[in-house]
C-alpha cells in the first residue's frame, strides 16, 4: 500500500526525504521523559490550532481534532523518549500514561455510580475512546526512525514544557479520581488546581535547567503555545457554548476552565519572579 502511495505522490515523498531530521541531545531518564512530554506538548498544541482552524474553515465537525492531537502528542513523545533516553525512558513515559488512564477509569467509575445513567459509562465506549493512544503508539514505531541525536544540552525548553504538561495531566487525573463530582464548579476548580501545578513545575524546571538569561524568553515561548491554543481553540469554543446571540448558559466549569491558561503562565512566572526577588534582596543585604 505504501509503495502505491509513493508511486502516486512522488513529490511528497521527495519533499519528506529533504526535510531535516529533528535532533535531540541525549540525557538521563528523568529529563528525557520531561523532554518527551514537552515535544508532545508542542506538537499537540500545533495540531489543535491548525486542524481546528481547518475544520472550522471548511465547515467540518471539530470533535475529532482532540483525538488527532493526542495521536500526534503520544507518537512524538514516545519517539523522543526513545531517542533521548532509550528504552527506560519509554517505559517510564508509557507508565505515566497508563497510570493517568487508570486514574481516569477510577474517576469515571465513581462518576457512573453517582450519575447511574450516562453514555460514557459503557465499557465499550471507554475502550473505543483509547483509539488515540493505540494509534499514537503504532505511529511512534515509524516516527522514531526519523529522529537523531546530537551533542550538547538542547532539550531544556522541551523539559520545561514537559514539566508543565506532565504535572498538569497527573494532577488532574489524581484529583479527578479522588474528588470526582458531578458539579461543574468543582470540575472547574480541579482544572485550576492542575493548571497551577503545571505552571509551578514549569517554573521550577526553568530555574533548575535554563540559564538565567533565557528563562523569561523561553517561558514566553511556552506561554505562546498555551495562549495560542486558548485564543484560537478555547475562545471560539467558549463563545459557542455561551450561545452569543441566543441563549446564554455559562456554568462554573466554563468560567473557571476558561481561566486555566492564565493560571499556568502566571504560576510559572511567579516562580521566576520570586527567584529574581530573592537574588536582588540577597545582593542588597550583602
What features would you describe in this structure?
This protein is mainly alpha-helical. The chain has one domain. It has eleven helices and two strands; from the N terminus they run ααβααααβααααα. It has a two-stranded parallel sheet with strand order 1-2. α3 packs across α7. The radius of gyration is 21 Å and the shape is globular. The termini are far apart. About 2% of the residues have low confidence.
Arrangement of strands in the largest sheet = 1-2
Radius of gyration: 21 Å
Derived structural class = mainly alpha
The share of residues in helices is over 70%
In short:
This protein has 286 residues and is an all-alpha fold.
Characteristic terms for this protein:
286 residues; mainly alpha; two-stranded parallel sheet; 11 helices
What is this structure's SSE topology?
Elements: H1 2-8, H2 10-18, E1 23-25, H3 29-57, H4 65-115, H5 123-128, H6 131-143, E2 148-150, H7 156-178, H8 184-209, H9 212-242, H10 252-258, H11 260-285
Parallel strand pairs: 1-2
Helix pairs in contact: 3-4, 3-7, 3-9, 4-6, 4-7, 7-8, 8-9, 8-10, 8-11, 9-11
Amino acid at each position: 500500500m505504501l509503495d502505491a502511495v509513493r508511486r502516486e505522490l512522488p513529490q511528497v515523498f521527495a519533499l519528506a526525504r529533504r526535510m531535516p531530521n529533528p535532533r535531540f541531545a541525549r540525557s538521563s531518564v528523568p529529563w528525557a521523559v520531561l523532554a518527551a512530554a514537552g515535544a508532545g506538548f508542542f506538537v499537540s498544541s500545533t495540531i489543535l490550532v491548525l486542524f481546528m482552524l481547518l475544520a472550522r474553515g471548511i465547515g467540518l465537525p471539530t470533535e475529532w481534532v482532540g483525538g488527532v492531537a493526542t495521536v500526534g502528542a503520544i507518537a512524538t513523545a514516545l519517539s523522543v523518549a526513545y531517542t533521548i533516553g532509550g528504552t527506560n525512558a519509554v517505559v517510564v513515559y508509557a507508565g505515566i500514561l497508563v497510570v493517568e488512564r487508570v486514574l481516569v477509569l477510577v474517576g469515571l467509575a465513581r462518576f457512573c455510580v453517582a450519575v447511574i445513567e450516562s453514555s460514557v459509562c459503557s465499557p465499550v465506549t471507554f475502550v473505543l475512546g483509547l483509539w488515540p493512544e493505540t494509534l499514537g503508539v503504532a505511529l511512534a514505531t515509524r516516527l522514531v526512525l526519523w529522529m537523531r541525536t546530537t551533542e550538547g544540552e538542547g532539550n531544556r525548553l522541551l523539559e520545561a514544557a514537559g514539566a508543565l504538561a506532565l504535572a498538569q495531566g497527573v494532577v488532574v487525573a489524581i484529583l479527578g479520581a479522588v474528588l470526582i463530582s458531578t458539579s461543574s464548579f468543582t470540575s472547574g476548580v480541579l482544572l485550576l488546581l492542575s493548571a497551577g501545578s503545571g505552571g509551578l513545575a514549569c517554573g521550577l524546571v526553568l530555574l533548575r535547567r535554563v540559564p538565567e538569561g533565557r528563562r523569561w524568553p523561553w517561558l514566553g515561548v511556552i506561554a505562546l503555545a498555551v495562549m495560542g491554543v486558548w485564543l484560537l481553540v478555547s475562545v471560539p469554543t467558549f463563545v459557542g457554548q455561551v450561545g452569543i446571540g441566543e441563549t446564554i448558559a455559562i456554568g462554573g466549569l466554563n468560567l473557571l476552565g476558561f481561566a486555566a491558561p492564565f493560571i499556568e503562565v502566571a504560576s510559572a512566572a511567579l516562580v521566576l519572579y520570586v527567584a529574581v526577588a530573592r537574588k536582588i534582596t540577597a545582593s542588597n543585604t550583602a
